[in-house]
Design goal:
It holds the Pfam family ABC_tran. With 422 residues, the chain is of the alpha/beta class. Among the domains are: 5-101, Rossmann fold (3-Layer(aba) Sandwich); 153-231 and 336-417, Rossmann fold (3-Layer(aba) Sandwich). 41% of the residues lie in helices and 21% in strands. The chain contains 17 helices and 14 strands. The model is unreliable at 146-166 (pLDDT under 50).
């Protein structure tokens, strides 16, 4: 669409108001050419175009990394002060609500169960629903006041080679992994180790390369250089079906990854049929089908769902239920390693806590190695033994849970300082 005169100037002015760099370029860009934070700013600019008195913000920072979240919240605070806007926040993030809002209304099952000043409600919740939300809210330790950025040694480590839990041998190892797209290095020489029954969190800002690395580990992206090893054996560029099954990726958006025309049971049955691992030899098709049906029920119960949900379509499920189905589908392949990409990003506080508990149970109960890719450092803190921090395709820092109180890198400290805390 070509705009001229006053309309073009108005567009550029709105983009400048939301602090987007190079408004002329942004105005000519398509949404897929912008980062998540830039798209959120464009949406805010669209809302401001009508000169509103009230701005209704529906989960405005849910899918953003912590540094971009901080920038968007600061922008909204500035716009509120400059324009005299009234902000209405719809959010499951109590820390964001506590920072941005004066009053709070807690809803459950379509009804408002509690209202009041934010400080009063959070300090002395009057209802069980509010107390449950607060109990499930993620917490992070405060940064140690004496922690300082380390010199170059913190930046020179490109692996996670310190002792794993109980000094166990590596279940999964990545050696000098590189993913190159033309002149662009999406992943530039990353190494890591993961033991059985342990969890590694891969964190970083948008565009850091963490999801590309996760997909390369799962065999969905081909490495330009480097190796992925499972139980000491190198997984080649063309993995066998058996090798692909051993490392399962749980996608960020389970709804889009579930076939809408198949029931939950059908989704799981499809994986079991592809494996051909259920049913007695010589028992016939009926015996195999019965064996798969029983296994579907076992998988659903393993992830905390009732067996009768097998007949439901994915669009009839809540976000938390769909995430559990995605985990059940991954388990149906009998994996050794789960790679969970933003497993809680679209979930409310209580559903998020339940998924973390489930992942912890799968890690400990089945001895799985789990890799969690997340911009939510609270999830990584609660679930993971070790942390790998990425930026620009490279590892900035890796280590154990001491990262959360005493990061060795300046970037790690900046990232943790950006977190909105309750």
């Amino acid at each position: 669409v070509r705009l001229g005169g006053d309309a073009a100037r108005r567009v550029l002015d709105l983009l400048a108001q939301v602090r987007l760099p190079d408004p002329p370029r942004i105005s000519r860009s398509y949404p897929h050419e912008l980062s998540g934070g830039q798209r959120q700013r464009v949406v805010i600019a669209l809302a401001l175009a009508g000169s509103p008195a009230v701005l209704l913000c529906d989960e405005p920072t849910t899918a953003l990394d912590v540094t971009v979240q901080r920038e968007v919240l600061d922008l909204l605070q500035r716009l509120r002060a400059e324009r005299g806007l009234t902000l209405v926040f719809v959010s499951h993030d109590l820390a964001v609500v506590a920072e941005m809002c004066d009053r709070l209304a807690v809803m459950a099952h379509g009804d408002v169960v509690e209202t009041g000043a934010v400080a009063d409600v959070l300090a002395s919740p009057a209802t069980a629903e509010t107390r449950a939300l607060l109990a499930a809210a993620p917490t992070l330790p405060e940064l140690a006041g004496s922690a300082v950025a380390a010199p170059a040694s913190a930046h020179s480590r490109t692996g996670c080679f310190a002792r794993e839990r109980a000094a166990a041998p590596a279940l999964l190892e990545v050696r000098d992994a590189r993913v190159q797209y033309g002149d662009f290095a999406a992943v530039g020489g990353v190494s890591l180790r993961l033991g059985a029954g342990s969890a590694l969190g891969i964190v970083g800002e948008s565009g850091s390369g963490k999801t590309t690395l996760a997909r390369a580990i799962a065999g969905q992206v081909r490495l330009s250089e480097g190796d992925v090893l499972l139980d000491g054996a190198v997984l080649g560029a063309r993995r066998s079906r058996a090798q692909l099954r051993r490392i399962q990726l749980v996608p960020q958006d389970p709804f889009s990854s579930l076939t809408p025309r198949r029931s939950v049971g059908g989704v799981l049955d499809e994986v079991l049929r592809a494996r051909g691992a259920v049913g007695s030899a010589g028992g016939g098709a009926g015996s195999a089908a019965a064996g798969r049906a029983a296994r579907v029920c076992e998988l659903l119960q393993r992830v905390g769902l009732d067996a009768d949900i097998a007949g439901a379509a994915p669009d009839r499920l809540s976000g938390g239920q769909r995430q559990r189905v995605a985990l059940a589908r991954a388990l149906a392949a009998d994996p050794r390693v789960l790679v969970a990409d933003e497993p809680t990003s679209a979930l409310d506080t209580t559903a998020r806590a339940r998924i973390i508990d489930l992942l912890r149970d799968l890690r400990d109960g089945l001895g799985l190695g789990i890799i969690v890719v997340s911009h939510d450092l609270g999830v990584v803190h609660e679930l993971c033994d070790r942390v790998l921090l990425m930026r620009g395709g490279s590892v900035v820092e890796s280590g154990d849970r001491a990262f959360f109180t005493a990061p060795r890198s300046q970037y790690g400290r900046e990232l943790l300082s950006s977190i909105v805390r309750l």
